[in-house]
Amino acid sequence: MTDHSYNFAYLDEQTKRMIRRAILKAVAVPGYQVPFASREMPMPYGWGTGGVQVTAACLVPEDVLKVIDQGADDTTNAVSIRKFFQRTAGVATTVATAEATVIQTRHRIPEQPLTAGQILVYQVPIPEPLRFLEPRETETRKMHALEEYGLMHVKLYEDIARHGSIATAYAYPVRVEGRYVMDPSPIPKFDNPKLSDSPALQLFGAGREQRIYALPPFTRVVSLDFEDHSFHASKAPHDCDLCGASESYLDEVITDDAGNRMFVCSDTDFCRTRREAGHVGRLGKTAGGGA
Amino acid sequence: MQAAEPSIFAKVKPQAPLLSVKGLSKCYGSRIGCADVSFDLWPGEVLGIVGESGSGKSTLLSCLAGHLAPDTGEVIFATASGPRDTVTMSEPERRRLARTDWAFVHQNPRDGLRMGVTAGGNVGERLMAVGARHYGTIRHAATDWLGRVEIDAGRIDDRPSAFSGGMQQRLQIARNLVTGPRLVFMDEPTGGLDVSVQARLLDLLRGLVREMGLSAIIVTHDLAVVRLLADRLMVMKSGHVVEQGLTDQVLDDPQHAYTQLLVSSVLQV
What are the tens digits of pLDDT across the range A141-200? Predict the structure, then answer.
């Protein structure tokens, strides 16, 4: 039910126009962080205010919206953002990745490959990949402008020096089309290969930091690494305990106080679809009642 | 990585100065930073700049190193592709120069080091900035350079904040010299260190400068430092160069009244 005291998708038309201009610029310069006048949203920073604004600017009444948080459709963040757009835009919502035209996500890329025409909107907390090494914004902007990205490898060097391998497991820096170094938001590095050459449009919105950046369809995205310590898209070395999938990203769930645990797909839609198709994992039969 | 090459003098007789400064001036509003400074620095030469606090030494050094834009004058550096005026060259080119052919050693190592990054990462940063992408090579170069500045290789994974002041300064020097620069700017490299650490640092610097055939410009107010390191000396007062010449000549036979005062003010033990 649309609440008619709001404009379609909450934001006023001039704000949406401003955001669309930023998105167009971001698409034209892949990986470049475009500043935009982020608005106050009726939810706290850190809950995806950037992603919500990008989604609001992209939505049309015919869209089908899917919202995920850590891959799940039923977590607090996903539920409240889905309800927000149901109420203010009245668009159809879904949990099925294939049916959605706009997917807002926090921390994951859906397991099912995206298709042309879909838009994936990321909620980004800190858009600047160099931030923790170089705190000055003036300096990081200059470094991006002049392609001075040696510092990014210092971070990876530090990882290897301390942990013996590149221990960065999420927000793993990537280079876009051989030009801009980009923070792909806190997705696990398992998802990094999916960024590259995707048929879908990928938009990144950071509300507090007031930045929008984008990956147009079929953009080449390379994860940074060393010649002798190459990038490795890691995941827990298990199969999903519910659906038995071996190739999906897994969450570890503690099931009791005796140290028992199970690994389940973090993408709930992917797991559900597989179970409906008859795939059963190690604990699949009892999952409905026990876990 | 800089291999220990034979002295630069053995290979080529320098035809042109490495750095040629002409009529350099910098004002802060109506106040003079430095005025009408001209000199040539030849390859392999170490130039000392001395003077009291506020005499414009650091302003001059910042102008030379591209940290400040001078009001007038030229700073012509002999780049690999011929002499270029670094004042008018584009910023990307100047920054490239600053991380390849030049090095800058700050008085306070905290300004020149990344305090949150390990010693190895600090030394490796310049290598990675010029395109090194092989961890083993970077690690090896870092270990090698820590050895050269007399820091125990076992401390390679410690952060500079765990180092003493003298070690931090030596680490800063290693970090700057790892890419084999041709010209090093030093702003009071021994300031804030106690005398015994100072002596070791000077000894180390002298060795590195001679061994690598570096040219250097050293700003200091400590005459003992320039006596030990510098071939040539420039004395500044109120933004102007009042006297310049060979170090021993200037210190042993000062001509200008201010230089005489400066030399006679040195405390004798």
Answer: 999 999 999 999 999 999 999 999 999 999 999 999 999 999 999 999 999 999 999 999
Nearest to A198 by CA among A223, A215, A186: A215
Residues of B in Cβ contact (< 8 Å) with A229:
135
The pTM of this model reads: 0.86
Residues of A serving a catalytic function are 31, 240, 243, 265, 271
Residues of chain B whose beta carbon is less than 8 angstroms from a beta carbon of chain A are: 91-92, 95, 99, 114, 116-118, 120-121, 124-131, 133-136, 138-139, 156-157
From chain B, the residues in CB contact with A150 under 8 A are 99, 125-131
Choose among A221, A226, A268, A276: nearest CA to A249: A268
For residue B183 the two structure tokens come to 């010209």
Token pair of A55 as six digits: 């989604």
Distance (Å, whole) CA A73 – CA A51: 16
Tokens linked to A61: 């009444």
CA dist., res. B127 & res. B104, Å (int): 15
Looking at residue A266, its amino acid is S
Q: B102: part of which helix (H) or strand (E)?
A: strand B102-105
Of A19 and B15, which is predicted with more confidence? A19
Name the residue type at position A18: M
Instruction: Report pLDDT digits (tens) over B141-181.
Output: 999 999 988 899 999 999 999 999 889 999 999 999 999 89
pLDDT in tens, A251-279: 999 999 999 999 999 999 999 999 999 99
Residue that the structure tokens 């669309």 belong to: A20
pLDDT at B1: 46
Q: How far is B75 from A121, CA to CA, in rounded Å? A: 50
ipTM value for the complex: 0.83
Contact A53/A85 with Cβ under 8 angstroms?
Answer: no
Determine phi and psi for B74, rounding to 5 degrees: -125, 145
* Nearest CA among A93, A122, A95, A119 for reference residue A267: A95
